Amino acid sequence: MGLIPRDEKFFDLFSALAERLAGSAKLIHQLFADPQNLTQHVQAIKDLEHEADNLTHDVIDRLDRSFVTPLDREDIHLLASRLDDVIDLLDGTARRAQMFHITETREPARRLSEVLVRAADCIVVAVAGMKNQKVVVERARELKQLEEEGDAIYHSAIGDLFAGSPDALEVIKWKDLYDKLEDALDQCEDVANVLESISIKNS
Hints:
The chain is built from six helices and no strands. By secondary structure, it is an all-alpha fold. The protein has a single domain (8-201), classed as Methane Monooxygenase Hydroxylase, Chain G, domain 1 (Up-down Bundle), CATH 1.20.58.
């Protein structure tokens, strides 16, 4: 059992951020699975991003008011920021899809967003179990595997995008969207690294 002192409010805020992340990932997946409802998905993700910003502000405000914290102050700030960063990336991806007037999907985008859903769900479990080093290490390992799976999809997608005589505008649009989805997966791995570091320090 870990020796992290109990301060449930910080951990509750982390879990709330992780839930917003998972919700945003599911909406991104729905967006690329069914872009006909793009406007509604973009707004729903924006709403979650706004909630996440407020939660991150709550974490920082609580840090400022706390004399004793359950984790290093830098780690608390870093974890909240990393979780919020993923949500910001997902929000940016959704807004970019709207800006590009996406009306039909591409299979690699659907697959990348599906990997993102699994990565986000993994983060939810890791955050909920962050006082248990075994849980965190297992989920961190899984997140690294998911990031590698996403890398393979991304590189294949980019190769396919430039094959033959592609339409230049389509290449620009979809490369940008693939880049954003890949960036979000990379950021999920960064969250895993922070969680693993915190877990090791406090074991």
